[in-house]
Amino acid sequence: MTDYHHPVLEQEVADFLVRDPDAAYLDVTLGGGGHTAAILDRLGPHGSITALDRDPEAIAQGRARFAGDARVRIHQSPFSHLGDFCAPESLAGALFDLGVSSHQLDERSRGFSFESGAPLDMRMGPDAESSALDWLKSASEEELARAFGSNSDLDRPWALAKRVKLLLGEDPAPTSDLLRRAVDGIYRPRDGERAGLLARVFQAIRMEVNRERDEIKTGLAAAVGALAKGGRVAVLSYHSVEDRAVKETFAGFEKECVCPPRLPVCVCGGNHRRLRKVLRKPQEASAEEIARNPRARSAKLRVMEKV
Length: 307
Prior knowledge:
Elements: H1 10-17, E1 24-27, H2 34-41, E2 48-53, H3 56-65, E3 72-76, E4 91-97, H4 102-106, H5 132-138, H6 141-152, H7 157-170, H8 176-187, H9 191-209, H10 212-226, E5 227-237, H11 240-254, E6 275-277, H12 287-292, E7 300-306
Parallel strand pairs: 1-2, 1-4, 2-3, 4-5
Antiparallel strand pairs: 5-7, 6-7
């Protein structure tokens, strides 16, 4: 079987999550199944793991890989719907491996690549309402600018949005080259800078197509509800916007008091805290792992425990 995706911090994730080998666990981003397999290796005969993925190709690969192991249950679903498969307070651990899998990036037809002439698709699964190209055509300049600014922290988002719209009107069959021309026209990048800028432009569009920030916030909230007391949630993020959404969501569950700031005294009871940090600061991949898998370079692992 060819590698579908190289899991990041594979053993570390399993070490943090699995403390009861006969409990129930959840991997909301199955991918190639590397993290699921690492968790499964630590489970006893009565343990179980539910694995979700939006991508039908990942589901097919996972079902083939884990065929015959009754401890594994696999469902095609965005992770915001994890509550459909996990009862409240039933899990000892949940994993979110955010971002795009190696397979999705490398498979030209999936439209995540900015290789010349590649299609503009970027859908992680059939639940996405439109392709990247459809979204670019239907979105207003204001919506494009907001996405470029908030999803990738790009400079001059309005100028880039205007340029993309102009080029769309001139190109009867747009491909990834349209975004390359837009970046070149606005930022005039040197050769060594172009790839980084294109990656951020693609990231901004991909996050809109797949509603990624909403998925992160809704999925993490659902996971907290599904965790038993003492259960842990581990999240791997790969860029600052993802990580910021994770931190903001976790911060809301760390608060004892949820009263509006304008109130002079607490009236909520001050007992609303549901998570505590297991790691004081995020763990990153070792130099050895990055040498084996360069895509691990930007990964940050955060682990929280339900109190």
